[in-house]
Specification:
The chain is of the alpha+beta class. Helices cover 18% and strands 50% of the residues. It has a single domain, classed as SH3 type barrels (Roll), CATH 2.30.30. The chain is built from one helix and five strands; from the N terminus they run H-E-E-E-E-E.
């Protein structure tokens, strides 16, 4: 996926507001609750939690194939 300012802003907005995000990495689709975007030793990463288990996951931005921020219903 090519990262531009708009896409990066969408991910940061999701993290600031704890929104759900659907993303694909290495052919597997995940629905997660956004946590933060941070720089680490392996590069920039998106940190999120699985809603069912609360497990913290790290997704390197360079490995994300696509993502979509889900609208908050309610």
């Amino acid at each position: 996926m090519r990262w531009n300012a708009e896409r990066y802003d969408q991910l940061e907005h999701a993290a600031r507001n704890g929104l759900r995000v659907v993303l694909q990495r290495r052919g597997t689709e995940y629905i997660v609750i956004a946590g933060r975007v941070a720089n680490g030793p392996r590069g920039e990463a998106f940190h999120a939690r699985l809603p069912m288990t609360g497990e913290l996951m790290e997704f390197l931005l360079k490995e994300i194939e696509w993502f979509q921020v889900l609208r908050n219903e309610g």
